[in-house]
Amino acid sequence: MVLSCAIMAFTDGVIQPGYAAKSVTKLVMFLLIPVLVSRSDKEIDLKSLFRFQKKGIGKALILGIGIFVLILGGYFLLSAFMDFSGIVGALSENAGVRKGNFLFVAVYISFINSLLEEFFFRGFLFLNLKKQMRRLHAYLISSLAFSVYHVAMMIGWFDLWLFLLILAGLMVGGMIFNYLDEDQGNIYTSWFTHMFANFAINTIGFILMK
Asked: Confidence band (pLDDT; 50, 70, 90) for 93?
């Protein structure tokens, strides 16, 4: 967890490569490393993360729509008091996201990137940590890691108070995702909900880029 998150933070905050290079790095850190670790530690079960169950999809759909409305409503509410225009410049300079590749990046973030994050933070970390420590500690560690991981990529996007508010929201979101996966024993419901959150964020990006 520490190695993968530290390398991703360094990549996002210091190296700041193009989006394609960053995505390849994330595939290595969030997919390849967990797979290698699971091969050396037979107690880490990754196959069970993809056992599909229909019963959680309805809950995920309702929660996902609620999160979509909440994020989009929060943006319109806060945009009357705060300036979000700096996000476009930050996306262009730090991640290489521009109008020309925005649609591709938005689709990748919504479907592939969300799956990678759910696989790593909820599947690899939370569901396995829960077997080896207290449930509360597993909740806190995985959701805190999920929140802090996003720090480097958002530096300079917002003022301090909004930045802290977003980090707190990410941690709460991480705990909700943990609960969904704990209830189902797989990562499908949290991934589905995560997608809707990314749909909302990408909609905001679409609005800001006009």
From this structure: low
